[in-house]
Amino acid sequence: MNEIELFEHRISELENSVKILYSKANDFAISQAQVNIKLDNLLISLDEVKDSISTLKNRPSLFWDKLIFAFIGAVGAGIGTVLLTFFKGA
After folding, report:
1. Which residues contact 9 (CB under 8 A, 6 or more apart)?
2. pLDDT confidence of residue 87
3. What SS3 class is residue 2?
4. Residue 90: its pLDDT value, please?
5. CA 83 to CA 89: how far, in whole Å?
6. Spatial contact of 1 and 9, defined as CB atoms under 8 Å apart
7. Regions of the chain with pLDDT less than 70
8. In angstroms, what CA-CA distances link 48 with 13, 55, 56?
9. Predicted local distance difference test score (pLDDT) of residue 59
């Protein structure tokens, strides 16, 4: 092999190496984009879970509020019944 053929062979090998390197870099960019999409979806799901947990935390206080209002209503109805019974009998 003379010197020109040697240089042409080396340039050809370098071109192949650059193509392979570009392909790997492109594959990495694609896989990184997929990871970013999955991470975004995970963050959205995490926010939904946080909202659900917050709703569940607030439910006991709502339950107690309803229970207190029901108790006040029952006491009021009882007092009203007693007063009606008292004034009806008088």
Report:
1. 1
2. 81
3. coil
4. 59
5. 10
6. yes
7. 1, 89-90
8. 53, 11, 12
9. 75
